[in-house]
């Protein structure tokens, strides 16, 4: 069972370090809301629904608690919540072994859903929940929540990895009036920043998942969604011309040593959390930071910069015909065949449930029925809109879909090969050969 790099990095970057227990109280159902939510009238009064997920602390954990509170108020259920820790799969596996799995669990990797479905640890969605999912989610999210054609999960929380965060003052000082939209513009912007005396990029390359995110964005834009899917399943080789083209494009930027804070060696010694204050801290070392939407939370918690005022983002630029939208998500599944589990999943598939967290901030929903006005500020609305606008062209983080030996192991596989490529981006063909050899061994 894998602990994916992006998930671990995300949890470390967000400062939620204390696992806390949360409990949603018992109350009479209040009714109202969307027609696609759970039945009202206290249908679960006297019943307890157990939930397990990774979210903790006063940020994510407290916000998720309000979602569970709303469910409890509508149904009369008592909801108990237990944080899993970073290794969700191992935690849930131990609960299955102890014959005490939660009613509902949230999985941060699609591969874990497939693994659990194969083992018979999760239950297919009820018919009414399937109908709600079909109404509110694009096909790509329905497929990500399925295995062998059977729907198991509801993607409640999404994340976009196709954002580039920048310090607004650095752009102003360099005379840059508009963020870049294409790769050519991105290179030009980097050059303009460099000429103005600012180092363009901060890269936390000590965490290999940071570099897989770079590759996935460039590859999706260069090759398109269909080839992205085929490469994610290793149906085409990493020696394919599209892979080499993506590596060449990365080399155009990574090969400019003065474009990287600390040069290549400095980047390779910088873990992701340290790359954020390198752009937005009191003594900035760079102007831009490609990273996921959760960077916003790290900016506000680790620096004095304010989102929208000091810091902003632009979509990852289009390298090919279309800009990429790559991301991840947390999927809710039923580990018990109880009414409480199925009612909660139906609620989580509704726009009402998404709205509860969206209004608090720090959240992106893949639910297309959620009104974007629910988000508390323009920056979060723009991020959420990019995920929804991508529709069925949204693609899940490729390294999360690969075997851990290739896509999720520190010092090995794709992580190590891309780190070596950042150190010396001159050998595109050799790097493609190394990627293919490692992928072929992992996908056996």
Folded structure, characterized:
The protein is of the alpha/beta class and 444 residues long. The chain folds into two domains: 5-160 and 327-396, D-Maltodextrin-Binding Protein, domain 2, CATH 3.40.190; 163-324 and 405-442, Periplasmic binding protein-like II (D-Maltodextrin-Binding Protein, domain 2). The chain has helices at residues 5-13, 57-75, 88-97, 110-119, 127-136, 139-144, 168-174, 183-195, 208-223, 225-232, 241-254, 263-268, 272-275, 277-280, 295-302, 339-348, 351-358, 378-390, 398-401, 404-407, 413-423, 428-442, and strands at residues 22-24, 48-53, 78-83, 104-107, 146-147, 150-151, 153-160, 163-167, 288-291, 311-315, 326-334, 395-396. Strands 1, 2, 3, 4, 7, 11 and 12 form a seven-stranded mixed β-sheet that branches. A hairpin with a 2-residue loop joins strand 5 and strand 6 (150-151). Helix 5 runs parallel beside helix 16 (339-348), helix 9 (208-223) crosses helix 10 and helix 11 (241-254) packs across helix 22. The longest helix is centred in the N-terminal third of the chain and has 19 residues, at 57-75. It comes from Thermomonospora umbrina. This is Carbohydrate ABC transporter substrate-binding protein (CUT1 family). Pfam families: SBP_bac_8 (PF13416). InterPro entries: Bact_solute-bd_prot1, SBP.
Question: What's a concise summary of this model?
Answer:
This protein is α/β, with parallel strands linked by helices and 444 residues long. The protein is built from 22 helices and 12 strands.
Features:
444 residues; alpha/beta; D-Maltodextrin-Binding Protein, domain 2; 7-stranded mixed sheet; 12 strands; 47% helix; globular; disordered N terminus; signal; transport; SBP; Carbohydrate ABC transporter substrate-binding protein (CUT1 family)
């Amino acid at each position: 069972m894998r602990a994916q790099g992006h998930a671990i990095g995300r949890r470390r970057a967000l400062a939620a370090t204390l696992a806390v227990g949360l409990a949603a109280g018992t109350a009479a159902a209040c009714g109202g809301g969307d027609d696609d939510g759970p039945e009202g009238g206290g249908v679960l009064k006297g019943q307890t629904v157990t939930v397990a997920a990774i979210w903790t602390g006063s940020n994510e954990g407290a916000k998720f608690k309000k979602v569970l509170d709303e469910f409890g108020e509508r149904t009369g259920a008592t909801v108990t919540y237990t944080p899993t820790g970073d290794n969700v799969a191992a935690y849930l596996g131990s609960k299955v072994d102890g014959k005490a799995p939660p009613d509902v669990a949230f999985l941060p990797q699609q591969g874990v859903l497939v693994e659990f479905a194969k083992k018979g640890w999760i239950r297919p969605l009820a018919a009414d929940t399937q109908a709600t999912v079909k109404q509110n989610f694009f096909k790509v999210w329905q497929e990500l929540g399925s295995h062998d054609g059977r729907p198991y999960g509801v993607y409640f929380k999404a994340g976009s990895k196709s954002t580039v965060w920048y310090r607004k003052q650095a752009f102003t000082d360099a005379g840059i009036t508009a963020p870049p939209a294409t790769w050519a513009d991105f290179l030009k912007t980097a050059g303009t920043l460099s000429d103005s005396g600012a180092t363009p990029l901060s890269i936390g390359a000590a965490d290999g998942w940071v570099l897989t995110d770079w590759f996935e964005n460039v590859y999706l834009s260069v090759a398109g969604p269909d080839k992205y899917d085929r490469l994610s399943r290793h149906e085409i080789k990493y020696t394919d011309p599209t892979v080499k083209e993506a590596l060449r494009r990365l080399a155009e930027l990574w090969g400019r040593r003065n474009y990287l804070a600390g040069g290549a060696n400095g980047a390779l010694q910088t873990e992701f959390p340290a790359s954020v204050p390198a752009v937005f801290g009191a003594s900035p070392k760079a102007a831009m930071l490609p990273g996921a939407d959760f960077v916003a939370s790290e900016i506000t918690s680790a620096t004095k910069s304010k989102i929208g005022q000091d810091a902003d983002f632009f979509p990852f630029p289009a390298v090919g015909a279309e800009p990429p939208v790559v991301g991840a998500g947390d999927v809710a599944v039923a580990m018990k065949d109880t009414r409480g589990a199925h009612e909660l999943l139906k609620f989580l598939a509704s726009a009402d449930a998404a709205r509860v967290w969206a209004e608090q901030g720090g959240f992106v929903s893949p639910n297309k029925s959620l009104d974007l006005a629910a988000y508390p500020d323009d920056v979060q609305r723009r991020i959420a809109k990019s995920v929804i606008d991508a529709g069925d062209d949204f693609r899940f983080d490729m390294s999360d879909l690969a075997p851990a030996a290739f896509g999720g192991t520190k010092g090995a596989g794709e992580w190590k090969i891309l780190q070596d490529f950042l150190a010396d981006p001159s050998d595109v063909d050799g790097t493609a050969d190394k990627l293919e050899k490692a992928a072929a061994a992992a996908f056996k």
